[in-house]
Amino acid sequence: MAKTPAPGPGLGQAIFAWLDERAGLSTIWKTVFARAVPETNWFYTLGSASAILALLQVITGMLLTIYYVPSPDHAYESIDYIMNEVTFGWLIRGMHHWGATLMVLVVFLHMLKAFFVGAYKWPRELTWITGGLLLLIVLVLGFSGYLLPWNQRAYWATSVGTAIIGAVPGIGPTLTQIARGGTEIGAVTLIRFYGLHIWWMPIALLSLIGVHLYLVIRIGITHPPERDE
Ligand code: HEM
Predict the structure, then answer these.
(1) How far apart are CA 182 and CA 188, in angstroms?
(2) What CATH number matches the domain at 42-149+201-219, 1.20.810.10, 3.40.50.720, 1.10.10.10, 1.10.940.10?
């Protein structure tokens, strides 16, 4: 009886092999996802949770820019429009709003875990330092985003926040002036915070997450300390 010929590689496999030969996909996969990690616990998922939250914030934020208008005359109405008229606008804004709060919490807990397992020590000092900068960026994102709805709470919170910056010895008043774009909070402050919120800080956040993860992969992670360590 004639043998059935063995099936050749499918189209998907052929495309993968073509890309793999040129871009080294399987090496990337092995290095990033199939690398050996020590036995850990649930606290070690907080870093990945922070990364997923960052990604969700970027996606929902990009969707919000479709309708949001960064001007004192239209900002409040544009948010009202997103909440009441745009299909699922309330959901996207709700995700972005609560995601911001959750992200501060999760990133902070991730930092606490890194601290308690001594992950700030050699050879992970740079991972810790890039993490510290990431926390700062997350806080600036939260602060700059708070003004954007341009309601009473946003206005007065920013008024207090920028006044607090003024308490820095020596350069405080100049910093307040720079943050507000003048002596009072107005159109310049709004556009300045908007620029920070949608360009400068997200670019810094994503680039620094890249460096942070590079270091995590290059150096490896700690294992939870044992009773006798
Ligand atoms: C957007 C913010 C952040 C993201 C996306 C992020 C992501 C991650 C991921 C995925 C890991 C590996 C898994 C794990 O140990 O959880 C990690 C490890 C680490 N992160 Fe972060 N991180 C962020 C913020 C921070 C902050 C604020 C600090 C501290 C100031 C920090 C310090 C560290 C350290 C020291 C490690 C190594 C932990 C170990 O070896 O046990 N990270 N980070």
Answers:
(1) 8
(2) 1.20.810.10
